[in-house]
Structure formats: structure tokens, C-alpha cells
Task: inverse folding
């Protein structure tokens, strides 16, 4: 027997716990070669396992103990840790696609890639839960990234690249809790601790299909006693795993019924028929019998073909409903006569491309034990040992928010993995934004995100940590959920469209007009807070009347827009030219003949405009009349130290002649004269009027018009209390620019809704 030598490296004990037998292998890795020091195997004395599932933990534990003791005797040393593999009968896989985006170019870090994979695993788990029709608790035992994407293009490694969008395709694998616990308990009965747990199809592919061959679209079929495990490779990676619960034992059961023997005898007949022309046996009556190998082959042919058909169908399903280029077959069940030929036929490939692989794929395996086995039965046991070097997988237990959680240890477990396994909501790990605000601008949907909240507070064994902190067996994790930020708030004036200006030319001067917006059909100012579902229309024009109001000047007659006669309601757009004569009366003489309908609309608009001027007087600094007639006195009331000439330079009167022509200059001179009077303090007088039954004194001007009263009474124009404002002077309806005198009787009140003509 081979002994343990100094400097040979760490020994690895791999145990293939199969349906019919348990095979143990001990060896070590040196460079790129694995050295096998000892091999031992033993068949179960009873059917303690069926279809890869442990049914009798005690009996399986006894068989493991016997294999372990034989290996310890061969090596002259104790074995305490072991690597094992779970059968594919209960393996569930989910292929998923996960994506992540950034607001601007972002350099991808290792944590970003890990976060992306974690997102994919969580998606896979959610998808799996939707289709899980059993009461069993499943655990994610690992995942395999297949492809990464950078800004929509496939890439080998994301880390270090600058991206705005990244994605991954991955396979996540799941096993039920009772399968894992059964394997652990059986191993523990033999006095062993699990150092690594892998999956049988992953273990087999470690040996059967080296990485250099994984660019090819191939399949590996591990035909055991209870299950046929299948792996697919393509483009340098494992792209799918699968299983069918039919393998060698199903053939043995046919021989049991045909020859009337027990299961062990039938198994011997099946094996010997592959190497002998005939097989002698005793039936259950104790009578000697002989069966020809040809008869056994004929007896099993239909079932072998059916088994190959099921495997071929599974391969096509895993490979996108296409056949593969070649198939490697390992395991004892695949050595039955005719199996590879039937499989080649079902896959529609030449029979030479479906082959049993044993010694042919063990070029990097050195056997240092006596009489070593190099057949296909040894591929999976050696692969279990090699999986230890690929990743150290094991189950560990941690406490998450006071709850005991079992995790499949892939060597890079983090707080995030523990959170996923304990069903902690993923969104409560990360800062959560407040409610977004959605609305439309000119018919197009728009959204403003809410404020981002605070991240989850995480402690690991009492110390501050984050979701990427690695966890180990026995760790205590405490997570306080992240918070939700404030809901989105946006003022109307912050819309980018309203930062633009509308440029028009009035009497030759360029005027910049702010763009305005209607919300749900109502004009709103820039401080309006946009509400959920608001319909916002950005106005890209003004009427002639609105331009006059904005400039705070009278609207006269002879209106021209782009040198064409126009009305006060004519719309003026970007770069339009506009002119009117402030001294002329508004007339339609220069326009086409006005229809009766147009005349009625004009009269109604004129009446409505007069009423509107009063309602909006306070919002427009109590109308332009104060600017023309009373502004001089206002300008005269400058504070001590203010330069009156400087104030006059910014007034309307000083620049109006050069800006608007002769029609406006006369008003400018009148205003200038009033300013001089105001500055000298001469000509000002006070008058007393009766407003709604109470005396009111008006002061600071030489002359007063009706609209001046609003400056001296408490009348809220911003909150209408009726359908319209009633304005009476000495018992009759007043004009808002009509002069008022000392002792006049004035009525101002809201007309009740539903009344009036």
C-alpha cells in the first residue's frame, strides 16, 4: 500500500455515497496533477438508498465507517474530514437574468459584481418558490455565472470597466433540507466532519470535461444506480444541470422479475452478462439456472433504449431544444451493452461521439495505490476530491436577528447571503426612496424620484458592518431595516422647460417673456407644487393683451403682429414682431369685416377683461394706472439717502420714448412731471370716501381713481368668495379707472354664486 510521504501536500478524502455502493478516495494535488494514494469501496448490504436518496441513515453510516476504517488502515493515519456530493435526483436549478443601472458611468468593483450576482440568486429563489409545489424547505447551495453583459454587450469580466448598465446570466442550484441533513448525519455517524459539499454532476465534470474542452457544446451523463445526472457545457462554462430518476437499478429490477432472484443476485447477473457469454445463478427456489448474455441484452434492450430516449430528451431541453456535438458517459450504469449506441441514435449524432470515459479522461491523475481502478466508476469520486480545491463548500449556522439560519458555505458568504436565506426583504437592506411623483408635460410622462432614505444598520458580532461583510459559523448578525425617504416634491418653476424664455420684438425692442404653464387647465405660478397625476401644458405663446399686462403698459389700438393687423387676443410666438399705438383706440377697422359672432365674443371678452383687471389688480401691483398716474408720488417717497435721479432712470417715463416711440412718450412726460411734483411734496391731497358703510381716507396722491381704493381696504382678491366682484360708485356701476372725489359712496363686495344675469 502507498504510504503518506513528507511534503506531499494536504490530503483530501472524497466519498461518493451512491445508491448501490460507497467509494472512498484519498489523495493530494501537486501542481496540475492529482495523486491518488488510496481507494476503497463497499456495496450496501441492503437497499439503504434508493434513487440517490438515503432511506436508512444508520445503515449508510455503518457502510461509511467501514470504508473509512479500510482507508485509515491503508494510510496509517486517521481521517476526520471528508468531501461529499449530493445526488441530482433532488437538485433544482433556475436560470435567471439580473440587471443593474447607474445614473452615470460607474467603475465596476468586486462588490458591484457580487451585488449583481446576489440579486440574480434572489430572483432565482423567488422564481423557484413560485414553481415549488412541495412542502420541502430548499436551500440555495451555490450559483454559476454564465455570462456577463456591459452596456448590452457580452463580456468576460465586468470588474474595472466603466458602465452605465450591467447584467448577468446565472444558474442557481437548490437542494431540500432533508437531503443535506441526511448526508450530514450519515457522515457524522462515521465520526467525520463535512469539509466540502458539492453536486454530483459538478464533481463528475471536474474530471470528465476539463476547462479547455468546455468551449464545445458537450454533455456529460453520469449514469449511476438510481439517477442519471446531466451537465451541459458551452462557450467555456457549464450552462445547465439536469437529472432523470432512471438508471442502473431500473435494469436490475427487470432481471429480478424475469429470473425470480433477489436484487443482489440480479445485480450480479447484469454485471457478469457484460463480460461473460452466460451466467449461472440460483433462483429463489434454490434451483440452479443458466441465462445467456445475449438473452440478458435482449431482455433489457427496450428499457435501455427508453432510458437513452429520456436522457436525450433531457439533454435537448437543457441545450435549447438542440442536440449536442458529443456526449461523455461515466458511471457504472452507462456500461450496459447498447446504451451509448441508443443514446447516439436518439441525439442524431454519430455513435463514435457518444463514448464511455474512464482512464481516457484521467491524464492528470497519478495512481500511487496498488491495483488502482481507472474506469468510469472512479470519475465522480476523484471529481469530489478535486472540487475541494475549486471551492470549499459546507453548511454553516449563523444567528440572524435572533433566528438560527443554515447557509451553504461557498467560501465567500456575506451578510447579504444570510439575509436572503432568512427571508429578510432585500429592499430593506438598501436605502429606500420615497414615493415618486409622476405627471405629464406636454402629453409626455415624467417622473421625479423621492428622496433616498437611510441604509440598514448592520452589526456583526456587535461590530458595525455592511452587507458585504463575510460571515462564518456561529456569527451573530443583527440588521435594522433601512428607512424610506421623503416623497418627491417639485415646484413648477423647476421644470427645465420653464427656465427658457420667449423672445419677441415690441415696437422694435427685444422683450424676454418667461414661459408659463397651465396645470390641469389652470394657470399656476412658479411656486406651485406639482401633484401626482398633474397634466402640465407649457405655453409657448402670449396674447397681445398678456404682453401689455406683463410690460405694465396700456394696450392701445392699431395692433400689428408681424406687420399684419391683429386683435388683443391674437397669439404671439417666438421671434414675432408686435406693435401698437398706446394713444389710439382699439379698433377692428384694419381687419377683415367682423362677423356678428366675433363681435359678440369681443364684447364679452371686453366685459370679462374689465372684471378680470379688478380681480387681478392686487397681484399686478394694483394695475398699471398707479404706475402711470400715481407712480410719481410713489417714486417721490424714496428713503433718505436714495438718489432720485437713479430711481427715475429705472422708471417707465425716462426710457419709454426710445423704447416704444412717440405714442408712449407723451405719457412718459406726464409721468415725469408728476414725479417732480411728488419729489417736491406739492400737489398731494387726502380724500375721504365711504366704503361699504365705513369711512376710508386715501392719501399720497393728487388724483384718485376707483382702483386706488383696493390699496386702503382689506379685500382678499386671491380667494374668491363669489362668482364676480360688484363695484358701485354712488349707486351705479363704476369703471375701474374712473376718478373718485371726496365724499363718494363706494360699494365693493363678492356677488353670491348662482346670482346675476
Result:
Amino acid at each position: 500500500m502507498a504510504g503518506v510521504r513528507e511534503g506531499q501536500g494536504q490530503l483530501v478524502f472524497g466519498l461518493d455515497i451512491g445508491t448501490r455502493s460507497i467509494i472512498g478516495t484519498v489523495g493530494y494535488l501537486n501542481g496540475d496533477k492529482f495523486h491518488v494514494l488510496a481507494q476503497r469501496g463497499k456495496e450496501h448490504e441492503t437497499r439503504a438508498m434508493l434513487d440517490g436518496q438515503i432511506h436508512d441513515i444508520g445503515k449508510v453510516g455503518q457502510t461509511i465507517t467501514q470504508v473509512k476504517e479500510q482507508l485509515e488502515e491503508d494510510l496509517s493515519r486517521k481521517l476526520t474530514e471528508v468531501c461529499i456530493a449530493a445526488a441530482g435526483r433532488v437538485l433544482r436549478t433556475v436560470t435567471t437574468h439580473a440587471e443593474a443601472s447607474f445614473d452615470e458611468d460607474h467603475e465596476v468593483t468586486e462588490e458591484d459584481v457580487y451585488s449583481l450576482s446576489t440579486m440574480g440568486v434572489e430572483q432565482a429563489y423567488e422564481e423557484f418558490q413560485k414553481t415549488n409545489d412541495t412542502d420541502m424547505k430548499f436551500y440555495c447551495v451555490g450559483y454559476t455565472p454564465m455570462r456577463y453583459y456591459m452596456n448590452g454587450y457580452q463580456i468576460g469580466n465586468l470588474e474595472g470597466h466603466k458602465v452605465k448598465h450591467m447584467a448577468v446570466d446565472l444558474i442557481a442550484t437548490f437542494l431540500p433540507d432533508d437531503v443535506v441533513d441526511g448526508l450530514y448525519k450519515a457522515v457524522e455517524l462515521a465520526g467525520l466532519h463535512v469539509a466540502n459539499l458539492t453536486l454530483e454532476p459538478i464533481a463528475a465534470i471536474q474530471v470528465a470535461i476539463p476547462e479547455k474542452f468546455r468551449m464545445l457544446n458537450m454533455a456529460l451523463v453520469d449514469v449511476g444506480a438510481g439517477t442519471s445526472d446531466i451537465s451541459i457545457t458551452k462557450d467555456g462554462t457549464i450552462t445547465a444541470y439536469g437529472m432523470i430518476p432512471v438508471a442502473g437499478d431500473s435494469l436490475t429490477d427487470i432481471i429480478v422479475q424475469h429470473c425470480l432472484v433477489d436484487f443482489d443476485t440480479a445485480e450480479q447477473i447484469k454485471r457478469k452478462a457484460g463480460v461473460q457469454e452466460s451466467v449461472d445463478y440460483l433462483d429463489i427456489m434454490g434451483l440452479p439456472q443458466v441465462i445467456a448474455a445475449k438473452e440478458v441484452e435482449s431482455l433489457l434492450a427496450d428499457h435501455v433504449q427508453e432510458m437513452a430516449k429520456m436522457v436525450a430528451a433531457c439533454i435537448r431541453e437543457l441545450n435549447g431544444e438542440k442536440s449536442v456535438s458529443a456526449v461523455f458517459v461515466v458511471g457504472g450504469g452507462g456500461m450496459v451493452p447498447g446504451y451509448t449506441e441508443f443514446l447516439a441514435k436518439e441525439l442524431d449524432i454519430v455513435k463514435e461521439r457518444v463514448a464511455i470515459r474512464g482512464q481516457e479522461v484521467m491524464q492528470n491523475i497519478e495512481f500511487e495505490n496498488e491495483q488502482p481502478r481507472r474506469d468510469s466508476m472512479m470519475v465522480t469520486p476523484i471529481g469530489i476530491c478535486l472540487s475541494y480545491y475549486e471551492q470549499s463548500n459546507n453548511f454553516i449556522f449563523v444567528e440572524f436577528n435572533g433566528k438560527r439560519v443554515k447557509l451553504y458555505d461557498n467560501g465567500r458568504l456575506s451578510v447579504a447571503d444570510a439575509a436572503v436565506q432568512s427571508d429578510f426583504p432585500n429592499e430593506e437592506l438598501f436605502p429606500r426612496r420615497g414615493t415618486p411623483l409622476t405627471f405629464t408635460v406636454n402629453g409626455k410622462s415624467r417622473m421625479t424620484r423621492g428622496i433616498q432614505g437611510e441604509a440598514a444598520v448592520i452589526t456583526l458580532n456587535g461590530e458595525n458592518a455592511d452587507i458585504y461583510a463575510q460571515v462564518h459559523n456561529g456569527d451573530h448578525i443583527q440588521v435594522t431595516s433601512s428607512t424610506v425617504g421623503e416623497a418627491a416634491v417639485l415646484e413648477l418653476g423647476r421644470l427645465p422647460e420653464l427656465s427658457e424664455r420667449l423672445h419677441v420684438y415690441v415696437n422694435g425692442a427685444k422683450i424676454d417673456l418667461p414661459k408659463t404653464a397651465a396645470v390641469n387647465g389652470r394657470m399656476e405660478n412658479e411656486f406651485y407644487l406639482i401633484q401626482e397625476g398633474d397634466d402640465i401644458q407649457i405655453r409657448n405663446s402670449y396674447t397681445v393683451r398678456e404682453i401689455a399686462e406683463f410690460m405694465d403698459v396700456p394696450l392701445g389700438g392699431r395692433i400689428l403682429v408681424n406687420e399684419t393687423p391683429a386683435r388683443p387676443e391674437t397669439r404671439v410666438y417666438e421671434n414675432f414682431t408686435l406693435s401698437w399705438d398706446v394713444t389710439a383706440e382699439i379698433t377692428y377697422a384694419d381687419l377683415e369685416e367682423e362677423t356678428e359672432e366675433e363681435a359678440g365674443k369681443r364684447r364679452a371678452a371686453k366685459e370679462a377683461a374689465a372684471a378680470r383687471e379688478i380681480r387681478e389688480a392686487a397681484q399686478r401691483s394694483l394695475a398699471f394706472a398707479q404706475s402711470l398716474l400715481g407712480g410719481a408720488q410713489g417714486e417721490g417717497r424714496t428713503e433718505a439717502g436714495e438718489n432720485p435721479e437713479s430711481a427715475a432712470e429705472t422708471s417707465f417715463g425716462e426710457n419709454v420714448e426710445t423704447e416704444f416711440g412717440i405714442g408712449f412718450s407723451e405719457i412718459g412726460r406726464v409721468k415725469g412731471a408728476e414725479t417732480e411734483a411728488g419729489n417736491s411734496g406739492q400737489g398731494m391731497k387726502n380724500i375721504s370716501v365711504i366704503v361699504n358703510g365705513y369711512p376710508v381716507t386715501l392719501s399720497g396722491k393728487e388724483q384718485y381713481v376707483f382702483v386706488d381704493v383696493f390699496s386702503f381696504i382689506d379685500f382678499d382678491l386671491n380667494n374668491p368668495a363669489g362668482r364676480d366682484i360688484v363695484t358701485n360708485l354712488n349707486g351705479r356701476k363704476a369703471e375701474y379707472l374712473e376718478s373718485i372725489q371726496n365724499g363718494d359712496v363706494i360699494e365693493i363686495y363678492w356677488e353670491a354664486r348662482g346670482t346675476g344675469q
